[in-house]
Amino acid sequence: MAPSFRALATLGLAKQSATSARLASSAYSTAMRTNAFSPAARPTVSMKLALSRISPFRRTYADAVSKVKPGKLRRTLRWAWRLTYLSTAGVVGYTCYIVYQDRHPEPQFAPDPSKKTLVILGTGWGSVALLKKLDTENYNVVVVSPRNYFLFTPLLPSCTTGTIEHRSIMEPVRAILRHKKAAVKFYEAEASSIDPDRKIIKVVDSSEIKGATSETEIPYDMLVIGVGAENATFGIPGVREHSCFLKEIGDAQQIRKKIMDCVETAAFKGQSPQEVDRLMHMVVVGGGPTGVEFAGELQDFFEEDIKKLVPEISDRFKVTLIEALPNVLPSFSKQLIDYTENTLREEKIDIKTKTMVKKVTDVSVEAEISRPDGSKERVTIPYGLLVWATGNAVRPIVKDLMSKIPAQKDSRRGLAVNEYLVVQGTRDIWAIGDCAVAGYAPTAQVASQEGNFLGRLFNNMAKTENHETRIQELSSRMNIQAGDSAEAAHEIESLERQLRRIKDIKPFRYSHQGSLAYIGSEKAVADVSWWNGNFATGGSMTYLFWRSAYLSMCFSTRNRVLVILDWLKSKVFGRDVSRE
User: Fold this and answer.
1) pLDDT greater than 60 at residue 27
2) pTM for this structure?
3) What is the residue-wise DSSP string for 289-313?
4) What positions does the domain FAD/NAD(P)-binding occupy (predicted)?
């Protein structure tokens, strides 16, 4: 019974406390309403006592309410934001570190006169890939090229319209060589002839400013020829005199000037409609990736920039793409070829396939079109700008060397090489890139892989020579000092195992990684090798892949940053339409 009475008493006290709290709260509220407008109103002692009774109750009630946790979406967004700024900070930090390393290279070793002299001709894709892979401390390396930079040619069409500035895709050769372990000599000159019997190269200073000595000879023990190819005109009259090529940075600058020349001349007062149509007609010969990308860039330039600034001639602009084969982009899959041609036609680019150029004048192109019924039609196409983006021809120095090697007498497209890229008929001359005939298409991808292969080959050759010299030394020591024979024999055995691995060099095999091409209107096509087949795609998402792929292929961090800034600049402010 006692516990029951105590429980009832406790319950009664609780009810009394609650009633007192309600009464006190009511009294306080009434007092506040009564004295709300009285400036001299102050809380009385009874009010303070009532508030002191209410406060524990309010705190207890507030503590009893649980905090609401943020939702899953909010937590996900919070972590995504944290990951974003942490990743950004990491990328910026890594970029700063790479830039610092580029700006502060380590000291280099001086060349060793006792080692072999390796001469590399050219600074294109193959030669630069070789230099990146080569351990220069194993040789005395000499580089000879008429240009002192490496050019990222896949983005060259973008330079013609100002989407990318030309210096953004150029990397100084001396900056590349400065980061090698051993010093490399570089001569900005053009090789005029090669004597394979005397192992001597004649070089000529081809710059505008010449010193007292502008011609000299360079001896070599090993020679790599990576001079590329020049533009082929196929003997068509007027091509070299009236066309613009698209192979070097000077070609892109010339095209850019001529585009604006055509625009400004067409806008000149009193120009006849026929002349305006001719000046605003841009003709591109060559339906490969270079020609297609240039046509797409040119159409974008006029649609996004020229039409806004020169509206009076905007409806006269026209681009024509001429290809001798039945379709453009012949190295791509049929699906992508159809997609590309449909996209170009949607962009109002006139495609003329099965069309052979026969003659070029300063104002027109004479071509022969093959009709489906087998008949041929001769047409005259007036133009303001003609860009020749097809064909490779052998350079004079390669022709001269081929004439001196009997084994090269049947070769027509370049230096015939074996599976190790050695020039046939020689022992110490290698050829890579467009000047070599190895059974593969003359592309930057092939040249780059050939350069990497030669770099590994030369590194292994140097290791082989060092190991063989060391084995001879150990063998001689064993004959003189019998006490160290066990240790020397063990080292010889180890070196011989390494030699077997080093000498087991597989021949060069090209691995096709895929093909990319920009087709205008922020669309691209990609034919990428995937497992045992190909993955073909096209569209706007492929355009982002095209940009990211080319960005990753740029030679240095400096090039990547400059290209990104150029893309942003042209997107925000538009392309520069100034003539120079």
Assistant:
1) no
2) 0.81
3) HHHHHHHHHHHHHIIIIIHHH-GGG
4) 117-451
